[in-house]
Each structure stands twice: as C-alpha cells, then as structure tokens.
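Late entry, evening session. Most of the bench is empty. Finally got around to the prediction I had been postponing all week. Sequence below, unchanged from the version circulated by S.P.
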Amino acid sequence: MTISATSVRFDEYTMWVELSDGRTLGVPLAWFPRLLHATPAERGQVELSRVGLHWEALDEDISIAGLLAGRGDITRSTEHAA
C-alpha cells in the first residue's frame, strides 16, 4: 500500500498534510523556505500526486516519504567545518 496525501492546509507556522492512511502530519514551514515565504494563494496551488506534493509556480516538490522520514528541504546547502 502506498501512502499518499489527500489534502494540504497551512497555518501561520505549519503545513498540515492529511494522509491516505488517516494520519495527519504537521511539518514546520521553516523546513521549506519557498513555502514559508510564499503567499497563501501560492501555497494553495499545490498539486497532489501518488508520491508527493508539487507547487509549479514555486518550483517546490516534497515527497511523502521524505516527510515521513522527517526530512526538510534537501536542496539547501549545508556548511561543514574544515
């Protein structure tokens, strides 16, 4: 059984993702800077697929597997001490 998103909603600090297995994930918007800085209208243009969430205008793709694993925006570069 593949777990997919059935709906997405937002409050001031959190993205709430309803899953097909009945769970609801609350994910900090700080994990996804593009969504954090987007307008409510831009956030509302989400496309749900079998494997994740997509915002064409924001160039943002989030996998359900990544959310379940607790991963945020993996496109950010990380700084490493030399």
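Two things to note before I forget:
The CA atoms of residues 17 and 39 lie 18 Å apart.
The radius of gyration is 13 Å.
Will write this up properly tomorrow.
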